[in-house]
Amino acid sequence: MNRGLITMLGESDLERLRGATRKLAQVRQILITPTPEQLAGCGPVLEEAIEILGYVERGQKTREPLPILRDELHVLRRELSVVTALMQQAAGYYLGWAQMLGAAMGGYTPYGEAAPLTGRSHVSVEG
Amino acid sequence: MGNLLGSILHGASSMRAFEQGLNVVQSNVSNAQTPGYVKQTQDFESLSFGLDKGLPGGVALGPLLSARDENAEQTVRRQQSASASADQRASDLSQIEPVFDVTEGSGVAGALSRFFNTFSQLSVAPNSNPSRQAVLDGAKSLAQSVNQSASALTTASGVADRDITNTVDGINRVLGQIASSNVEFQKRFDANKDPGLDAALHKSLEELSQFVDFTALKADDGTTTVLIGGQTPAVIGDKVYALSQDFAGSQARVLNVRGQDISGQIGGGRIGALLTTRNVTIPSYLNDLNNLASSLADSVNTALSGGLDAGGNVPATPLFTYNPANGAAQTLNVNALNPEDIAAASAAAPGGNANALALADLGRSRQVNGFTFTEFYGNLAGRVGRDVATAQNDQQSRGALLTQAKSLREASSGVSIDEEAAKLIEFQKSYQAAAKMISVLNDMLDTLMGILK
Predict the structure, then answer these.
(1) Which residues, 6+ apart, have CB-to-CB distance to B216 below 8 Å?
(2) Per-residue pLDDT tens digits for B400-414
(3) Helix axis angle, B354-362 relative to B107-124, nearest 10°?
(4) How large is the greatest C-alpha to C-alpha distance in chain B, in angstroms?
(5) What pTM, to 2 d.p., does this model score?
(6) Using one digit for the tens of pLDDT, what is the confidence trace for B120-145?
């Protein structure tokens, strides 16, 4: 593979990584005061970042590694770990609430777990 | 007439209820920034209404509801403990990092390089006294650098001891505050309804979580039991089971009230990080430094003892000396030799430079765990640098998690000034309406009294 192509691919990967890191940084800010709706919205960004990370890392195994790319991979991995931890904590918090509400409303299952929290469903037919 | 008087009385009771509602709003607003305080809500209950049965209806005071979210409190305390631990670790390691300076020409790395260079220079002029003196000076400079690094680590260990003592004092002080709150809960039957006491207790628990990880259990009488590391009782009711510290052995230890070592139960808070730095990290760095010092001294002494000095004799005194019992790095020293005592020549060629060349090569050969002296020291410095970077990353991550935990708690339990302002207007209007009703009823009563006269 010629040097020019390596550089071109490297730069493209670099942009991908930087883009994913930027998005994750925004998500991190949102996750400081998350609502359940925001939590759900953060999932796709996280998935995309993981995909990009995997794609670039697989590429690194076959191509000549660029130091700047390695640094950017490190930054993205670090950002991912922080965002994942924030999502886990927020999800755990809301899950705890859901369990308390579930137990308060529906008691406990025969297995000793809080009853699942179920929302009322409505079917509306218009004609 | 009876009904009219009853209506006035029940109007007054409504006014009292709304006044209490206003007091709660005022307390919420005043304490919006008070650490540990959570939003209080005054509940109201409607009174039975039925004119035919003489029930006037109206409103009565219900219970005062606290928005305390123990789920959120526990999350905050857990993150507070982890964040304080990460802060302490980053701070400790940042103090140690400069000891392992690898800047060109400085510290142990620079001294190592200069020392082995003196043998290269000696090989060029093996009978030159200034070149021999340079070897002695280089050895002294290297020994001093190693001594300084070891001393700096020992000092860091002493600083950790002092910080452990201060932290244990802090833990005992906060345990005392929690026990004092417990006394109030035991003494006062209405203490459970006191938001001020509740705020003071939770402020103390949050402060404690900075020092150490613990489990807090609420008893039926409202008191809080504190178990350090989830196991060691530290507060039960009004009793404090104070912790202490012990530095008598090689390891720093935290002891329970019976003098038993509970260091293994502590994993978080400032004390957890301090114990790790003091008992694991610093000894590990010091061990590597001792390994380097003893390997260096032994290798150089062995090489010199195989050569001949300026007089053609096997050197009687080794160049380096150290005491392994007190730490090779701390005690590495250079014996009082004369320049002529340096064995630059090999036994096979007296007056030559073969041994000086062999010693210069020693600096490039793998003598410590498969590494050269410089590589080994570089690896140690690299390990310290990685530890610092990991600690700083952890500090950032934990900081973000703590901020999130606090904002989740704030959202569920914090005082919202906007919400309180809306309640204030609502209660004020209700209060005014009740007052107006009393005024109208009073006028009617006056009129009735006038008719009856």
Answers:
(1) B77, B205, B224, B225, B226, B227
(2) 999 999 999 998 888
(3) 160
(4) 143
(5) 0.83
(6) 999 999 989 999 999 999 999 999 99
Residues of A with CB under 8 A from a CB of B: 28, 31-34, 78, 81-82, 85-86, 89-90, 92-93, 96-97, 100
* pLDDT at residue B2 is higher than 70: no
Tell me the CA distances in angstroms from B443 to A51, B6, B438, one per residue in order.
78, 15, 9
Are B395 and B90 in contact by the 8 Å Cβ rule? The answer is yes
DSSP A111: T
Which residue bears the tokens 């409103």? B59
3-state secondary structure of B232: strand
Residue pair B353/B127 in contact (Cβ under 8 Å)? The answer is no
* Residue B369: both structure tokens together: 């765990």
User: Rounded distance, CA B260 to CA B275, Å?
Assistant: 16
Ordered DSSP codes for A94-107: HHHHHHHHHHHHH-
State how far residue A2 is from chain B, nearest Cα, in angstroms. 35
Greater confidence (B229 vs B428) lies with B229
Beta bridge partners of B50: B55
Interface pTM (ipTM) of the complex?
0.76
What is the least distance, in Å, from the CA of B392 to any CA of chain A? 12
Look-up: residue for tokens 């417990």?
Answer: B182
For residue B63, the SS3 value is strand
